[in-house]
Amino acid sequence: MPVKTDPKRIRPYGDTLNDGRVQISFTLPVPCDEQGKEAARQILRKMGMSEIDVCHMNDLTEGFTHFNAYATSNAEVDLTSIKVKIVETPVMDMYENDEYIDQNIGRDLIVVGACIESDAHTVGIDAIMNMKGYNHRYGLERYKHIEAINMGAQVSCEDLLQKARAVNADAILVSQIVTQKNIHIANLTKLIEMAEAEGLRDKMLFICGGPRLNHEIAIELGYDAGFGTGSYSTDVASFISVTIAEKAENN
Amino acid sequence: MLQLSIKQEKIEKAKKLAGQIVNSFDWLFNGYSSETIERTIVRLMGIDGATSDGTPFPNVIVEDLKSKKVLERGVAYWVANAMCALNLTAQEVADKVAIGELDLSSVKPQADEKVLEVINTQTATMLKHIKSQNNFREEKFATYGPRRKPALYVIVATGNIYEDVLQAQAAAREGADIIAVIRSTAQSLLDYVPYGATTEGFGGTFATQENFRIMRKGLDEVGDEIKRYIGLTNYASGLCMPEIAAMGAIERLDVMLNDAMYGILFRDINPRRTLLDQYFSRMINAYAGIEIQTGEDNYLTTSDAIEKAYTVTASQLINEQFAEYSGIKEEKMGLGHAYEINPEIENSFSYELAHALLTKTIFPTAPVKYMPPTKFASGNVFKTHLMDAMFNFVGQLTGQGVQLLGMMTEAIHTPHIADRALAIENANYIFTAVKDLGQELTLDPDGFINKRANLVLDEAIDFLQKVVDTGLFEAMARGDFADIKRPEDKGKGAQGVFKRSDNYLNPFLEQMKQELGLNR
Predict the structure, then answer these.
(1) Is A132 a catalytic residue?
(2) From the candidates B140, B308, B332, B369, which is the catalytic residue?
(3) Tens digits of residue pLDDT in A189-240
(4) Domains, chain A
(5) Which domains can be identified in chain B, with CATH numbers?
(6) Residues B145, B228: Cα–Cα separation, whole Å
C-alpha cells in the first residue's frame, strides 16, 4: 500500500513522513580536522539544512577532505504544480513494433545513428542500435522493418547529415556521452543548426540520447525527442514508429 | 592453489596459430613507412617546437618532403644531409624549414659517409638518453621495491594538466601505483601531436610532450616523498601512435596503451597504417622498457561479454605475437581484459572468474591489465561500487598485474577526487581481506569454471584458425572482429602510408632492432 501524503507538500523522507532527512556527500578544499568539519557543517547550514550530522570525514591529502553527512532539509515542493515533458508514445517490444510498422506505415524505416564530433564513446548508440541490444532488448539492427545504420564514433555533423540525406533517413539518432564543459550541448546545437541550414530539419526526426540528456532538454535544443539514462531501444524505436505513423496520417 | 585444468598443448596450439597470423606481415614492416613514423624520427633526432599557428615542426618537415616527393627516402637522410651541408644542429635545421628559409630537398647531397656519421651520432645520443631514462626507473624500483600486484591504476582527466597533477598526487598518496592521464576525446584522430602545456580538454587532457614532462615531475616528487615509484600512463594509439611512444620514451612514461588492432576496429584507422605504426611504436616501447597495455576490454563493451569472450582471448594472443615481433618481453605485456558480464546473469561471478583465470593461465608472466565494469555501471553509484568490489575480488584472487580501478561514478562523469579515493579504499580493503585466499582454493576439474575456460579457449582456437585461413586483413574486412568491417584500403590515415625507396633510412629502427636482437 503506497504511502499517504499531501501531494502539495512533499519533503525528503528518511524513516518518518516529512522528516526531511537527506544524505549528502561532498569534498571541500580544507584540512581533515575539526575546523574542516565545522566548515562542512556551515556549508550545509547555508544550503538550508538543519540537524546536521557530519558522520564521516576522510583525508584526501593535498589539502582536500571528503565528508558524508545526514541532515534535515526544510525544502518542500508541490507535486501537483510539476509538469515535465516526457516521451508519451506507448512502448512496444520489437515484435509488436515490427507489426506496427507493417500495418501503419507499410514500408521499412531508415534510421541513421552516430556519436557526433569529438565523442568517441559508442556505448550508448551501440546499446540502442547493435543487433544484440542491451539488457534483453534487441537493438534496432535486429528489427525486421528498420534499416539501422550505425556510423559509430567521432562522426562529423557534416558526414552524419550527408549520410542521412543520401539514404533518405526517417530518423537521426545522436548519442553524446562526454559532457565535460557542456560539449554535448555545443555538439547537439551545431547539428541541429546545420540541419536547419541544409533544409533537413523537417524531413526527418532528430533524436538525441545520453546520460545527461532528457526529453525536456532535447525539445529545448530543437530535437524531436531525447532519451536519458535507463532508456532502451524499445523506447526509441516505439517513438520513431508512432511519430512517423501519426505524421503520415496528418499529411 | 586456484588454477585451471587446461592442457598445455592447447595453449601452445593457440599461440602457434596467432604466430602464423602475425608472421605474414614482414612485407609491410620491412617495405613501408608512414608519415607519423617519419615524424617520430624527426622527434627522435631531437627536434621539438611548433610554428606560431600551432603546426608542430615534425609535421612541417614531413609535409614539406612529401610535397617535394622525396619522403620515400626517409626524413632522417634529408635532415642529416642539411645538418652536414650547412653545419647546423637538427633543431636549427627545423627552425629554418619552419620559417621557409630552407628547402631540404634542394640542399646539395653530401658524401654518404659524412651524412651517415651525423645520423649515427644523432641516433646514439637519443638512444643513450632513452636508456638512461629506463635505468633511472629501474634504479627507483630497486630503491623503493617492486610495484605491488595487482597494481592500483587510476585515471585523471580534468583537461587541465596542472589540475591533473594535483589529483594524481592526491591519488598516489592514497595508494595509487599508476596514474593514467586520459586523453582529450578527439585526440586519437588528430594527425599531429599538439604542442605545449594545455589547460583545456574534453573528457581528458591532451597528450603533449610538455604535459608528459609536467606530470612526470609531479609524480617523481610525490614518489620520493612516499617512497614509491609512481608509474605514468598515456596512450600510444591513434594516428600518432609512434610519436607518442617516442615522447613517452623521452619523458619516461612507464606504461603505454598500445594495441595492435584497436585503432582499426574502434577508431576506423586504416589497417595497414595501424599495423605498421604499432610495429615501430612497440619497438620504441620495448627499447625504453615501457610496459604496453592492450585494449581487449573494448570487445566486451561492444559485444556480449559471454558470447564474445573468445574474441578477447584471440586478440590477446595476436597482441602477444605482435609485441614479441617488436621485441617486447612478456613481463612488459599488459594484455587486457575486463569484468563486463551482465550482473543480472546467474553465476556471473563464476564466468568472470573463469575468464580472468584463463588469461592468467595463458599469459602467466604478463602484467595483465584488468578493466572494471563500465557497461553495466549506472547512475546507481552504490551498486556500481559493489560491482567494483566484486571485480577487485577477482583481480586479487587471480593475481592480475594491473587493476584499473572502477569508479562508482563511472556512468556519470569523469571522476571527482572523492570517487577516486573511494575506489582506492575499496581495492585496498578487498586486496587485504582476500590476500592469500587463492592459495587455499582449488577448482573442481570438471566443474563449471574449468569447463567454461576450456570452452572459451577452444572457441578462440577455432576463430584463430579461421583468421589464419583467410589472413588478418581479410578477416577484418569481413567483420570477424567485433562485428565491425574494416577493409584494408579504407579508414583514416590510409594516405599516410608509403612504400620505402631502396635507399630508405630509419636509423632508430635499425639500431633498436640490433640491440633488441631482432633479426627480421
Answers:
(1) yes
(2) B369
(3) 999 999 999 999 999 999 999 988 999 999 999 999 999 988 999 999 999 9
(4) 1-82 (3.30.30.60), 94-250 (3.40.50.280)
(5) 32-124 (no CATH), 148-449 (3.20.20.440)
(6) 7
